[in-house]
Specification:
Belongs to the LysR transcriptional regulatory family. It holds the Pfam family LysR_substrate. One of its GO terms (molecular function) is DNA binding. The chain is an alpha/beta fold and 305 residues long. Among the domains are: 88 residues, Winged helix-like DNA-binding domain superfamily/Winged helix DNA-binding domain (Arc Repressor Mutant, subunit A); 101 residues, Periplasmic binding protein-like II (D-Maltodextrin-Binding Protein, domain 2, 3-Layer(aba) Sandwich), CATH 3.40.190.10. The protein contains ten helices and twelve strands. The chain has a five-stranded mixed sheet with strand order 4-3-5-12-6, sandwiched between helices. Strands 10-7-11 form a three-stranded antiparallel sheet. A two-stranded antiparallel sheet has the order 1-2. Helix 5 links the parallel strand 3 and strand 4. The longest helix is centred in the first third of the chain and has 24 residues. The protein is elongated.
Length: 305
């Protein structure tokens, strides 16, 4: 087993394709395939499953990747300390539900990261895909919420994916509405107050189950429903159509228009927002910094509520 083979495995997992990984590694596809086969034969496990849809990481491969990343990171630290070579290109990925504070923390991470080269990824995506990204090591951190309604289902998927949930904060539900919506005059709104207005929610694709909804009270029937796929569109429709959505109430006015206002919703539900990590992967330095920025961004925004 060589350090180069470990780097090959990590790049294939990142690219999800032997061909793309070979291009990024500047080697031929047959050479990369042979190196992976030799490594799998040596360690006695199958790391990747090849299919028409691309590369899948086996459970044994996921565990192996966790160790491989630690070895490669330590080797890079050793090289930087004693060979005085330039710092290697750093990689860091986050998958998240559509939370402004997750973006704020990502911006702070990049502003404080003084390197000539890096490759960072921020995916605002669907709930199931967030869990799948962290499970298969496409992202190191995933940001989701749980509550009494979806907790058992989400915990089942986390357990099967060998993932851990770390709570960041518990929020009282709020509605996001336009600053011109008549409901902004109220200190608190009820579900009945909201009936005349279009309800906006994030579309969840093939896993559009109530349990994977980003919004609580997903089983309630509403006369006007609009589903969107991105936060910018949702906010535009909140303003243009006087619609509403249900969220934590934590909103960054540095990144989002001040035309969006959070008003408390009169319900007994609570929202527990947290981040997920893989059990077998040691959290990197970049991930730890990002988590700290997450906490600070949330605290800053909560103070404004």
């Amino acid at each position: 087993m060589t350090l180069q083979q470990l780097k090959y495995v990590i790049e294939v997992a990142r690219s999800r394709s032997i061909n793309k990984a070979a291009q990024r590694l500047f080697i031929s596809q047959p050479s990369l395939s042979n190196a992976l086969k030799e490594l799998e034969d040596e360690v006695g496990i199958t790391i990747f499953l090849r299919s028409n849809k691309g590369i899948l990481i086996t459970p044994e491969g996921t565990e192996f990747l966790g160790y491989a990343r630690q070895v490669v990171e330590q080797a890079e630290l050793l090289e930087n300390r004693y060979t005085h070579t330039r710092s290697p290109q750093q990689h860091f990925s986050v998958s998240t539900q559509h939370y402004a504070f997750a973006v704020s923390a990502f911006v702070r991470l990049l502003k404080g990261y003084d390197r000539e080269e890096y490759e960072f990824t921020l995916r605002e995506t669907k709930t199931y895909e967030i869990i799948d990204d962290v499970k298969n090591l496409r992202s190191e951190i995933g940001i989701i919420y749980v509550n009494d309604f979806n907790k058992k289902v989400i915990e089942k998927f986390l357990r099967e994916g060998n993932l851990l949930f770390h709570e960041l904060f518990e929020a009282k539900p709020h509605v996001f509405i336009s600053s011109k919506n008549p409901l902004v005059k109220q200190e608190i709104v009820t579900l009945t107050d909201l009936l005349p207005y279009p309800y906006l929610s994030f579309e969840q694709g093939d896993f559009n189950s109530f349990y994977f909804s980003e919004e609580i009270l997903s089983t309630l029937s509403r006369p006007k429903n609009i589903r969107v796929t991105d936060r910018a569109t949702l906010f535009n429709l909140l303003i243009g159509l006087n619609g509403y959505t249900i969220s934590t109430g934590v909103i960054s006015h540095q990144l989002n228009s001040k035309d969006i206002v959070a008003v408390p919703l009169k319900v007994e539900e609570r929202i527990n927002v947290g981040y997920i990590t893989h059990k077998t992967v040691t959290t990197s330095t970049l991930a730890n910094i990002y988590i700290q920025y997450l906490k600070e961004s949330i605290e800053d925004e909560l103070c404004q509520l």
